[in-house]
């Protein structure tokens, strides 16, 4: 059974998903009491669901996850998989399943509160359901369980900016300065937007410049640094950034107008 599972994993990693499923099903037929085999199989099934948008794969995941929950009543991956099924049914097929997705994610967290990905997906479900406050709290809890995760920090910064929660944004950026993080164009851009909102335009321009140095193809930063450069009358820098932006998007008439 383990050999078939390993073959399934290898074919899945090679993006030969349906071949991988064949081997996963064989591993389950040899040992139907091993929950890990179904968890691994669900990985391939989710990839097919994302790729094809076909509900048949979601139905198979729901069946597989339910069988695992029959084996292990508090199996967090079973609840998590069912939550993802309900989320995708709402997102891709317009079904009224977001509330159910939220409940499954909550059950998954109750079974294992130290899995930040579940908090992240719970936040997405809350956000899609218009429950902004609850979604923000889910992201904050995710960061507590995975401190220093730059993707979570980035997402929280975006949410705080959208909600104009400047005090919380300040606390978040102070937190990022107290730890070591990899360079992030997105986070530097968000910090620049925050500083701009405070009227600290020179500091904002410096952050946007840092973001461009990290990733010169990040479109949000280029738009921000061009707009602020024009406002601050930084002619040479703005010309350089406009030329860079036009290389990436030669049909942008606004950039051409500004360059002229």
What report would you give on this structure?
It is a single chain. This protein has 260 residues and is mainly α. Helices cover 79% and strands 0% of the residues. It has helices at 2-13, 17-30, 35-52, 55-71, 76-93, 98-111, 116-128, 132-145, 150-162, 166-177, 185-197, 201-214, 219-231, 235-248, 253-259. Helix 1 (2-13) packs antiparallel against helix 2 (17-30), helix 7 runs antiparallel to helix 8 and helix 12 (201-214) runs antiparallel to helix 13 (219-231). The longest helix has 18 residues, at 35-52. The mean pLDDT is 93.
Tag the structure with descriptive keywords.
single chain, 260 residues, mainly alpha, 15 helices, 79% helix, 0% strand
Secondary structure: elements and pairs:
Elements: H1 2-13, H2 17-30, H3 35-52, H4 55-71, H5 76-93, H6 98-111, H7 116-128, H8 132-145, H9 150-162, H10 166-177, H11 185-197, H12 201-214, H13 219-231, H14 235-248, H15 253-259
Helix pairs in contact: 1-2, 1-3, 2-3, 3-4, 4-5, 5-6, 6-7, 7-8, 8-9, 9-10, 9-11, 11-12, 12-13, 13-14, 14-15
Uncertain regions spanning at least 5 consecutive residues: none
- Beta-strand residue percentage: under 5%
Sketch the topology as an H/E string, one letter per element.
HHHHHHHHHHHHHHH
Shape: elongated
Average pLDDT confidence is 93
Which class of secondary structure composition applies to the elements? Answer: mainly alpha
Number of strands: 0
| Gap from first CA to last CA | 68 Å
Helical residues, percent: over 70%
Query: Tally the helices: what do you get?
Result: 15
**Radius of gyration computed on alpha carbons:** 23 Å
| Biggest sheet features | none
């Amino acid at each position: 059974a383990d050999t078939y599972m390993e073959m399934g994993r290898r074919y899945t990693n090679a993006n030969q998903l349906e071949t991988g499923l064949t081997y996963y099903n064989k591993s389950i037929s040899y040992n139907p009491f091993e929950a890990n085999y179904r968890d691994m199989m669900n990985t391939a099934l989710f990839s097919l669901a994302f790729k094809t948008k076909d509900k048949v794969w979601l139905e198979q995941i729901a069946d597989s996850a339910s069988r695992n929950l029959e084996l292990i009543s508090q199996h967090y991956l079973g609840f998590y998989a069912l939550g993802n099924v309900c989320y995708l049914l709402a997102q891709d097929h317009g079904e009224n399943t977001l509330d159910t997705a939220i409940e499954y994610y909550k059950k998954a967290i109750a079974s294992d509160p130290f899995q930040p990905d579940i908090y992240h997906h719970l936040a997405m479900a809350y956000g899609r359901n218009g429950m902004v406050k609850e979604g923000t709290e889910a992201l904050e809890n995710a960061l507590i369980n995975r401190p220093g995760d730059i993707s979570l920090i980035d997402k929280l910064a975006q949410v705080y900016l959208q909600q104009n929660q400047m005090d919380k944004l300040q606390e978040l950026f102070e937190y990022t300065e107290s730890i070591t993080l990899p360079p992030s164009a997105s986070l530097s851009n968000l910090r620049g937007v925050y500083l701009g909102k405070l009227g600290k335009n020179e500091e904002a321009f410096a952050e946007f410049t840092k973001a461009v140095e990290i990733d010169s193809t990040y479109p949000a930063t280029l738009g921000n640094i061009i707009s602020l450069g024009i406002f601050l009358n930084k002619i040479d820098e703005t010309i350089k950034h406009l030329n860079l932006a036009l290389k990436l998007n030669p049909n942008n008439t606004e950039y051409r107008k500004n360059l002229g």
